[in-house]
Here is the input.
Amino acid sequence: MDNPELDALRQSYKNAVEEWIATIREEEALATADHAVKAVDLWENAGFREEKARGKAKDAKSAYEDALRQVLFDI
Here is the structure.
């Protein structure tokens, strides 16, 4: 089925997931043996960015799923 709107929503979801993955890797990389306050702050801030990116991915997934339901099941 060719549907440009669904294609765009799917791509937005995929992009958001890739961004989320990148923030997870960034957070993981900051979990170092450096136990200094600055290092812990950087790690903690990366966790906040990861949470935000996760929310963005979940929102994009919901939008795509809702559009699929509308197109496939008219609900």
Q: What stands out?
A: The chain has a mean pLDDT of 96. Residues 4-73 form one domain. The radius of gyration is 17 Å. Residues 37-73 form the longest helix (37 residues).
